[in-house]
């Protein structure tokens, strides 16, 4: 709950976050991979990485996913596939039954290392060892 409140305060202070803007502007110049095939495979749970695929299938079937799995699949999308975090954020908001704009935005920006409290850009969740 405290993370949700923290991210809500950020959205009040920085309304541009509601418009898919990076909190940390130095990442505005990042060139993301536009590979639609890889994005669809991620969405459908067909990446070939069992933990990522199981998590995405759970999301698609139930509308919910454990927080640790949310971090793993977000890291995978942004740091393995190099796909823009905003695509993942939009997909999650369309699927999650507990979707919250502030928490979703904050979590995705954390995973992509573009947020105010982001993990370091070199920290990448290993989908093999996380299993």
From TrEMBL:
Single biological process term from Gene Ontology: response to light stimulus
Site positions (Electron transfer via tryptophanyl radical): 32, 85, 108
Alphabetical list of InterPro entries matching this protein: Crypto/Photolyase_FAD-like_sf, Cryptochr/Photolyase_FAD-bd, Cryptochrome/DNA_photolyase_1, DNA_photolyase_1_CS_C
Cofactor(s) listed: FAD
Positions bound to FAD: 98-100
Recorded superkingdom: Bacteria
Cryptochrome/DNA photolyase FAD-binding domain boundaries: 1-131
MF terms (GO), sorted A to Z: deoxyribodipyrimidine photo-lyase activity; DNA binding; FAD binding
Membrane-spanning intervals of the chain: none
Keyword tags: Chromophore, FAD, Flavoprotein, Lyase
Details of cofactor binding: Binds 1 FAD per subunit.
Family designation: Belongs to the DNA photolyase class-1 family. Belongs to the DNA photolyase family.
The protein, known as: Deoxyribodipyrimidine photo-lyase
Originating species: Pseudoalteromonas ruthenica
Lineage of source species: Bacteria, Pseudomonadati, Pseudomonadota, Gammaproteobacteria, Alteromonadales
């Amino acid at each position: 709950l405290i993370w949700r409140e923290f991210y809500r305060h950020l959205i009040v202070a920085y309304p541009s976050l509601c418009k898919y803007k990076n909190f940390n502007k130095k990442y505005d110049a990042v060139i993301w991979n536009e590979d639609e095939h890889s994005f669809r495979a991620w969405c459908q749970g067909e990446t070939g990485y069992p933990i990522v695929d199981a998590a995405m299938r759970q999301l698609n079937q139930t509308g919910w996913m454990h927080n640790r799995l949310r971090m793993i699949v977000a890291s995978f999308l942004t740091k393995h596939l190099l796909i823009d975090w905003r695509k993942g954020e939009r997909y999650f908001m369309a699927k999650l039954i507990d979707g919250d704009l502030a928490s979703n935005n904050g979590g995705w920006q954390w995973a992509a290392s573009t947020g105010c409290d982001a993990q370091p850009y070199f920290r990448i969740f290993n989908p093999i060892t996380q299993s």
